[in-house]
Design brief:
By secondary structure, the protein is of the alpha+beta class. It has six helices and seven strands; from the N terminus they run αββαβββββαααα. Strands 1-3-5-6-7 form a five-stranded mixed beta barrel.
Length: about 220
Amino acid sequence: MNLDKNQINEKELPIFPLNVVLFPGGYLPLHIFEQRYREMIKHCIRDESSFGVVMIKDGRETGDSAIPCRVGTEVDLVDVNRFPDGRMNIVTSGHSRFEILEINEDMPYLNARVRILDTFESDADPNLSDVAAETLEVYKEYETLSSFLRFSWQPPDENPEHPQQLAYQIGSRLRLPLNEKQELLELESFDQLLRKEFKILKHLNQQIAFQLTARNN
């Protein structure tokens, strides 16, 4: 049987709707207390499998199943701490974006057929080198200005030069409303994503510089 590229990139994935936008490369700690998500995590531990974190489009994190957005991030479990009553503290690591194609609600938790949108490419796309370099410069300025504005703001020790990793890190670090971060997550093209982030960073840097000037006067 011959499979096209889209079919090869499709898989079944448990879905965890949350009021959060997670980019690949980011870490997300979670406290698991609802029974359905305890079952989901147990399934992932048993099968050594991943699950998907998706921002909620409609509904709540607890109670009835929430409606997830179209695009989320696949995560792996990197740490699990179990409590005697069945609750768990877990730490997850995001590694690739996906698009939900079809949702199955027959299980206690959401399960979906998804299409993986991207995986990390060790060889950077040379066509992205210029826009990545420009975006990196304004991003460094953003981190520095933010550290002056907020005492608790800690810039990362290193900034990735690989365009894909850079785009992901910027998406994680931007102080934006969740719906705007979700819009960034849904941009499949890294060229589009970096260019959009460049414009946002320029705007935020101007805002922060104005706030710093006003504070010092």
